[in-house]
Amino acid sequence: MHVIENAPLAPLTTLRLGGPAERLVTAATDEEVIAAVREADDAGTPLLIVGGGSNLVVADDGFPGTALRIATTGFRLDGPLLELAAGETWSDAVTRTVDAGLAGIECLAGIPGSAGATPIQNVGAYGQEVSSVLTEVVAWDRADRTVCTIPAGECGFAYRHSRFKADPGRFVVLRVRFRLQDAAGLSAPLGYAEVARLLGAEPGGRVPVAAARDAVLKLRTGKGMVLDPEDHDTWSAGSFFTNPVLDDAEFAAFLAAVARRLGPGVVPPSYPAGEGRTKTSAAWLIDRAGFTKGYGSGPARISGKHTLALTNRGHARTADLLTLAREVRDGVREAFGVTLVNEPVTVNVTL
Ligand SMILES: Cc1cc2nc3c(=O)[nH]c(=O)nc-3n(C[C@H](O)[C@H](O)[C@H](O)COP(=O)(O)OP(=O)(O)OC[C@H]3O[C@@H](n4cnc5c(N)ncnc54)[C@H](O)[C@@H]3O)c2cc1C
């Protein structure tokens, strides 16, 4: 176990923002993770679990407690069954499973961060979500002080949501298990029209699994959604806002607001999201409210490649990023009556 006092957290985040943690502990085995959590809990010290820091917005004041960085390793592939230690780099694991010809997570290529964080917000992209192939999560339960195995059916998965997100801090993920698909080297059915189009395939069709992965990486790179230290458009936490899911009354009010502001012929994107619920696009709302790509003149701006990513241009502070985020959220609410919710986890600060 490696311990540093008063350790800056900014270098551990993809936004490169945030002040120091009182204490930074790096744990390389499950036993070290559990020992560090127990120690913090016994002392009543606030605890922040840090994976790859790609979904964290940390206060400029930092974190008054122990930040525990999960650096465990372990990749085990047994036929289509995959077990990953929480500290494994997610995108590397995707590469290895695609190289093995397995399908199910190929469209989640290029997503930064650790395997252990993928169940937290049910990571998803380009028509796939981890919840569709995840079988169980092995975690340290801080309430019961025991290691538990939680089957997928008890993880409360929904769009960018889970039991772990609903009850933050209770479970420390140690391992994640998946059942991938062996489709003779073919991808899972393509669930995203843009990917299918790029591959010259029909939505729902299958292509060689590596081709699907490569198409996704190409699309992601064009949107600044693959990390590149040289490109400030990727100094982000990915999408800053989730796509709003509206009930029937809210959706009707939204359509009326769109007609008032943009004219009766304008139809916003909409997707069924369960009984009486409709999902619309946060990127569309932000763009149509006037916050276009590259918006902003300060050290924090909207990415030049993607309306949904708020970025650090190199010398921003968290306060700058949050000022921009509030401006966008409030502007969208004023224009369309829809309140956007942040996707990244805010630490010691609120939007
Ligand atoms: C350029 C870019 C593109 C992105 N694209 C996508 C995308 O397409 N789809 C998507 O869903 N997300 C995307 N993200 C967001 C992010 O990559 C994911 O949410 C990722 O799973 C976060 O992993 P992490 O290890 O970096 O978590 P962190 O940022 O370190 O932590 C995020 C949250 O998870 C908790 N946590 C982390 N590890 C554990 C653990 N082992 N046990 C318990 N809690 C834990 C943390 O305490 C925190 O609350 C993107 C981010 C960036 C920067």
Summarize the structure in short.
This protein has 351 residues and is of the alpha+beta class. It contains eight helices and 18 strands. The protein is globular and about 60 Å long.
- Average pLDDT over all residues: 97
The second-level CATH architecture of the largest domain is 2-Layer Sandwich
Q: Low-confidence parts, pLDDT < 50 over ≥5 residues?
A: none
User: What would you report as the Rg, rounded to the nearest angstrom?
Assistant: 20 Å
* Protein structure class: alpha+beta
Reported by name, the CATH topology of the largest domain is Uridine Diphospho-n-acetylenolpyruvylglucosamine Reductase, domain 3
Helix content: 25-40%
Distance between the amino and carboxyl termini: 34 Å
- The number of distinct structural domains comes to 3
According to DSSP, the number of beta strands is 18
Strand proportion: 15-25%
Quaternary structure type: single chain
Order of helices and strands: EEHEEEEEHEEEEHEHHEHEEHEEHE
